Amino acid sequence: MRAVDIIQKKRDGLELTSQEIQWLIEGYTAGTVPDYQMSAFAMAVYFKGMTTREISDLTMTMVGTGQQFDLSEIAGVKVDKHSTGGVGDKVTLVLVPLVASFGVPVAKMSGRGLGHTGGTIDKLESIKGFQVERSQEEFIQQVQDIELSVIGQSDQLVRADKLLYALRDVTATVDTIPLIASSVMSKKIAAGADSILLDVTVGEGAFMKNLADARRLAQTMVDLGKAVGRKTTAVITDMSQPLGTSIGNRLEILEALAILQGQGREDITVFICELAQIMLSLADVEKTAEEVRQHLTDGSALEKFEAMIAAQGGDLEDLYRPSSAAYVLEVTADQDGYITELPAMEFGLFAMRLGAGRAVKTDSLDYETGLVFEKKVGDRVRAGQVLAKIYANQKISQELVTDFKKNVKISNEAVKVSEIIEIIA
């Protein structure tokens, strides 16, 4: 076989055989297919797409290019969760200990943030001593001991995806459904869980900008999971505004702690409890919304979270430490009305300017900086009321405040907000 023939075939909109896909991906991983040819292939897929069978073959070939975790030693139905990315998304920090507090084992690998999106691992690393790198044996033992572990993705897991994603990132081929679906599901399948919850974000701050594309991606990933015997459900969720009240690593840890103590904002608390119900049902555990919420108010979920932090070397005193940002500035409203827009992308990029995110993978993070919103879309606000607080380690200029305010839209008409738009099972 020749890579150029496979590229041409896909360029012309023809369906590739299983053998052609396997030869190309394995050759790329081995270094015999060069970057420039794989870039051409990715662009051909971007424009011509792939059939369901092609995506399935691509996914499973990628799974075979690296380590695969065997979680069979862990009793019960092992559940995992993945989000396609967003702004202020601290859901994993609350959801996984909440689910684990019902005795359901959660063995989760998470990633880092890039651009306007935040990463769960970065947030956990804002806790002094927390270790995201664990061996497979340590990972499994911890889940056996406390039903919960969240670690960084192994460099040996799905090696083809690691190489291909870096290439897609610099060739404008990130946002194509076949490559997103195979990237996500190859890692979830290799990670070994029995059941998978997929949070597919849609809107201004997500990769999927419209509901039709989000539905196609969600259905594709659900079909991939089911095809290899993994019970899989996807939820399509709104990412038109930041999720919750905080953007920034330390600040999101503090918000997660508030939610875990039953003191979080009502909308994100309800949202996480709904996701927990779905995730529990994937492990054949049926609980009412009230039963799930009880584990936030009675400390059961918080106890699991603290146990995970301690088991992975985290300092429990540092866990509760407030942000040490040198400057904190309150931004106030200029008029009365209802907040109708807080564009997630713009505020994600704003937080990145403060040091809370990375423009490129090699950038270092300032864990202490970010934003905390006092008001969200749908809330009533009066002139002079605090909209948000900016946390920075550089002096906050008036220009920065002006940039913040220009993205806050206030009108006389209230708007309704719903985090979960649709469920695909």
UniProtKB/TrEMBL annotation:
Report the family membership: Belongs to the thymidine/pyrimidine-nucleoside phosphorylase family.
Residues of the signal peptide: none
EC number of the protein: 2.4.2.2
What keywords are assigned to this protein? Glycosyltransferase, Transferase
Q: Which reaction does it catalyse?
A: uridine + phosphate = alpha-D-ribose 1-phosphate + uracil; thymidine + phosphate = 2-deoxy-alpha-D-ribose 1-phosphate + thymine; 2'-deoxyuridine + phosphate = 2-deoxy-alpha-D-ribose 1-phosphate + uracil
Cofactor(s) it depends on: K(+)
Q: Which domain of life is it from?
A: Bacteria
Q: Which PROSITE patterns match?
A: THYMID_PHOSPHORYLASE
Organism, as annotated: Streptococcus panodentis
The name of this protein is: Pyrimidine-nucleoside phosphorylase
Q: How does it assemble?
A: Homodimer.
Q: What does this protein do?
A: Catalyzes phosphorolysis of the pyrimidine nucleosides uridine, thymidine and 2'-deoxyuridine with the formation of the corresponding pyrimidine base and ribose-1-phosphate.
Segments forming domain Pyrimidine nucleoside phosphorylase C-terminal: 338-411
